[in-house]
Specification:
Helices cover about 40% and strands about 25% of the residues. The protein is of the alpha/beta class. It has one domain: Vaccinia Virus protein VP39 (Rossmann fold, 3-Layer(aba) Sandwich), CATH 3.40.50.150. The protein is globular.
Length: about 230
């Protein structure tokens, strides 16, 4: 399978601009995550970020967990360079280890908190999704926190298709061109393969990750807060 996270070209530098046109609740996913961390996650000393390229998770969490050590993991060197550049531009510093590998190939001690935002739907088979969730569980301490967001739903089901129609209007309102929407829409079911909210929760439960609550949902994107119970 072609690596969906391989951004080894100039388009990587456009990522932080374009994703906000595509993911209409992008800012809320991270703002509310930050609020939860401030409220519930005061004893976090180590953080692993799945798909850290771009730097959004680092930028968000460093503000509230400045003394934590971070493992910023992404298969793309170019995207990790973008994350580094963003932090320099923002004047933010922390103890960060950048690792250019797929997450399941990374060997790290179990951490207190893991984020996995907008990654799961890129994995096209159930086995690939399972491999990622198993790797997350194996690298998270019991009692640790997972924040996960993804495109969820059943392709072809009426409610899913209706929400995509609304998503299109929102993307155009944010400045995306019609052709950009058409390309993005065509990728759903091809490069982007969602499963339902219920299937995501059930998959994570198999690996000891229990849903506390869904904290943000817009159209077919759900962001959720999990804890590892075993």
């Amino acid at each position: 399978m072609e690596n969906p996270f391989q951004w080894e070209h100039d388009k990587a530098m456009q990522y932080n601009e374009t994703i906000r046109k595509r993911i209409l609740n992008y800012a809320s996913i991270f703002e509310v995550m930050q609020d939860i961390v401030v409220t519930d996650c005061r004893e976090v000393h180590s953080v692993a970020i799945v798909g850290a390229g771009g730097g959004q998770e680092l930028s968000t969490l460093i503000d509230v967990l400045p003394k934590a050590c971070y493992f910023a993991i992404d298969p793309s060197e170019k995207m990790l360079e973008l994350a580094k550049y963003r932090l320099i531009q923002e004047g933010k510093e922390a103890d960060i280890q950048y690792i250019a590998k797929p997450f399941h190939e990374v060997e790290v001690d179990a951490v207190d908190l893991i984020t996995c935002h907008l990654v799961l739907h890129f994995l096209q088979t159930d086995d690939e999704k399972r491999q990622l969730i198993q790797a997350i569980s194996a690298r998270l301490k019991v009692g640790g926190t997972l924040f996960l967001s993804s495109i969820n739903g059943k392709i072809g089901r009426a409610d899913f298709e209706q929400q995509l129609d609304v998503w299109r209007v929102g993307m155009l309102r944010k400045g995306a061109a019609e052709k950009e929407w058409e390309k993005f829409r065509a990728s759903i079911g091809e490069q982007l393969v969602p499963i339902t909210d219920e299937e995501v929760v059930a998959l994570l439960q198999q690996y000891g990750l229990s849903l506390l609550y869904h904290y943000e949902k817009t159209h077919v994107i759900t962001a959720s807060y999990y804890v590892k119970i075993r």
